[in-house]
Amino acid sequence: MKRFITPTLQISVGLLSLTMSLIFIAVSFGLVPNGAGAALEARGRVSENLAVQLANLAGRNDAVAIKETMESVVSRNPEILSIAIRGADGKLLVEAGGHDAYWIEPADGKSTATHMSIPLRDADAPQGRIEIVFRPFDTKENILGVPQAMMPFIGFIGIAGFAGYYFILKRSLRELDPGRAIPERVKEAFDTLAEGVLIMDEREYVLLANEAFVKNIYTIPEGLLGIDAGDLPWLLADDGTQAPEPPWRAAMRDEKPVLGVSMGIHDRFGNQRRLLVNATRILDGRGVVRGVIATFDDVTVLHQTNEQLHISIDQLHISQLKISEQNQQLQRLATSDPLTGCLNRRTFFAEGEVALQNARRQSQRLSFLMLDADHFKSINDRFGHVAGDRVLIGLVDVMKQICGEGNLVGRYGGEEFCILSSISAEQDVERLADQIRLAISGVATWLPHGERVTVSIGIASLADGACEIADLVKRADEALYAAKTSGRNRFVNWSSMPPQSQAPGLIPAQVAGKTESPTPSSVLAKSRVAQKPNDELTGLPNGEAAVEYIDAMIRDDIGGRCFAIARIDISNLEYFNDRYGRNVADALLVKISQRIVSKLRRSDMLARLNADEFLLLLEPFEGMQQIEPIVERVRNELKQPFLMAGHELFCSCCIGVSVYPEHGRSYEDLRRSADNAMFQAKRSAKGEAVFFDINMMQEATARMEAEQRLRLAVRDRRFCCAFQPKVDIIGRRVVGFEALVRLRDDDGEIHLPDEFIGLATELGLIDQITNCVLDIVIKSVDRLDAAFGSGTTVSINVAATLANDLEFMLPFTRAIRDSKVPDRIILELTEDSFIPKGAFQTVIVPILRDVGIRVSIDDFGTGYSSLSALADITADEIKVDRSFISGIHRRPRNQSILRAINSLGFALNMTIVAEGVETFEELAYLQAATSIRQAQGFYFSEPFYLEDMSGANNFLSERRLAEA
Length: 964
Known about the structure:
Layout: H1 7-28, H2 35-59, H3 63-76, E1 80-87, E2 92-96, H4 99-102, E3 115-122, E4 125-134, E5 142-143, E6 146-147, H5 151-175, H6 184-191, E7 196-201, E8 206-209, H7 211-217, H8 247-254, E9 258-266, E10 272-283, E11 289-298, H9 300-335, H10 345-362, E12 366-373, H11 376-383, H12 385-403, E13 408-413, E14 416-421, H13 426-441, E15 455-462, H14 469-485, E16 491-493, H15 520-531, H16 543-556, E17 563-570, H17 573-580, H18 582-598, E18 605-610, E19 613-618, H19 624-639, E20 642-644, E21 647-649, E22 653-660, H20 667-684, E23 689-691, H21 694-716, E24 719-728, E25 733-744, E26 750-751, H22 757-763, H23 766-788, E27 793-797, H24 800-803, H25 806-818, E28 825-830, H26 839-851, E29 854-860, H27 867-872, E30 877-880, H28 882-885, H29 892-907, E31 911-915, H30 920-929, E32 934-936, H31 958-963
Parallel strand pairs: 15-16, 22-23, 25-27, 27-28, 28-29, 29-30, 30-31, 31-32
Antiparallel strand pairs: 1-2, 1-4, 3-4, 5-6, 7-8, 7-11, 9-10, 10-11, 12-14, 12-15, 13-14, 17-19, 17-22, 18-19, 20-21, 24-25, 24-32, 25-26
Helix pairs in contact: 1-5, 11-12, 12-13, 15-16, 17-18, 20-21, 23-25, 25-26
């Protein structure tokens, strides 16, 4: 609305208003002829003429003529209602028009505009009078005191005057346009500036706006010239208050330039733009301020960037605070047991090592107490885990209260706790242990019905710090076991136990105090174990001696005997052997055996079965609650890193446990059950310890059946290949295929690789399946050429376990060379085939290069991907895993990763293939945002079989290629 009311229109309306006001003033002062006055004067003349005429007729006493004259006048003049002659005595002599009905005697006897009285005289003597009644004036004809007859005149003046004023003013203002005072070359110079420019007069009216301001900052249809600069849609301050004084106003007031003022404005599209404004005065030749020039630098992008930077900084501060809080929380979690608040095992032993070193330097004595809650499993079973947790928390509170600040209290695992004390005297340590035992047994509030909790405590001391922490733990554990087997709710000091003749953990020995008499068969077996040579590397009994001893125990059992065997498999020993050499691997095996032995009781036995597998005999035990903590201690111990040859190595192990007689009544049955449990641990991929149960037997049976079916399929070569096209999304053509192996059973049902590849790898059948795939591919090349033209490639997947196996790869490569199409074959290998750099990189790749076989890195980004690793890999193609391609158009992080892979592949001269393209949006993003040329996925085609190429459901339609 404001844009419509221009200065020309405002001035025109003002002038018209002035003109109309002058007309109304003239009317009010009577300067304009009044219609009512003229009418009254006309009535006076009519009355005088009529009076003269009637007086003449009366002088002749012509009553008839008087009557006719009066009636004629009334009928012919609508303004006259009645006429009468009244005698001197007041009686009507002659009348016309019903005079009595109209005549009203004036109050003062004088004539009025409607009732006129003209006297009749004879020689100056009154003879009567003539009375005339006129119609009253119509007051409705006046509008605001102005006669209605003048209104057309006034309306004409208003319309014509407004048009005239507007036309004259528009011409005048155009001729007097202040912008014309600025030369055209000056305006053109301002228009070349990138910054917006406004020139304003001293009243802040715009005299000039350059092209940059009009186009980029603000404009209105009628232009900016002549409008008040303060009326532009400037933004409020950031806090929502009125914006500060405009810089041009401050420049004119303070008589000095104003620079770098931040302002905001709504542009012509309604968007907010941020401006940096400079203003300076314009002076005439006499030094008088005539206006101001203001420049506007558009810093919207910079402002938005700064705002985003501030937001990012704030978010960074918030993140740092959160990270600090999380670090503190992680520190607490890393050093404390989350349930009880005491030190966790790792921190306890780390601080214990420090305490041990200090004790050695100061020649002090350390004591170690291991505490175990008696029958804790029954507490959980009877009262629930909440009550069990309350007991554990209470145990720690009692230990901390009694031990004080100078001793370390930690949780060893489960219901076992450790105390490391600097108390030197044996009797003082035993007094501390007994004080803890009595305090705990005296608490009646932890369990319902006032039931009490008791503990067993094992004590071990090291004189002058001569031994390691592991020795303290082992001795305290043996003393704890003695305390539990001798009645519980007591403490046993390792130094007070009877000496043992055998080294702990190598040959089973009975715990002191146990009265069982060994049978002759078991004694004989024990002596044979002692006589047979131990394993040369570890010093442990060998597998044959251990099996003989277990068989003897089973034969001598007359009922009631229980023991457990555990098979411990070191999964990644072969990797260490390949990576660091045989010496490091052997030294690691020795360390592993020592750590396992350190966690065993004196009655347990550890033997080495083969290169990377141990057999553990746990005997005797009363129930699973005794076996589980020992196995858990062994597993946790093997999780800790090994420092070997300057490298920190982490061992990966799986443990399977079976129990006699529940899981078997012969060693073979027990071994089979333990093996099934160990395989279950391997499948979990978590390095767990698994106890055998009956369900594993069913799984083992199902596995045996699956193995049998797979072996028969390999023997009968019941494999086929589905081919998935690889498309050039720029050239819109098929450039290659990936051969995907399938298993077709006797019933014709197709099985995908996920169902059999893993099992084939475990059984060592993957090499035969890969050779079968190669045969199928070589035979399929001609049919693929016939359907898609020559020159397409075929990719074959090779497992990482085979890539570095020279016995497989050398004949496999020769078979491709002899196929006469080696340049058409691409070997697809996952990243772990290249890392570490082994036989494939050093031996096989040069052979492939000579033959003409290309190499592709499959599923790139999901394995060992790193820039440094990729730089060392000799490959021709990178296949980006579908997890990065899926929904790429709406996943910014994956977009960044894909661009990095794209740039990296380009720099290394590798072809990039996008796997798993399933939607048009994913394809569109690849075409628009990357230089990737090749892709494969269900968007183009599902994998097809050669026999289906000519079917109705052709895998690749022209529409798909056209869209690509």
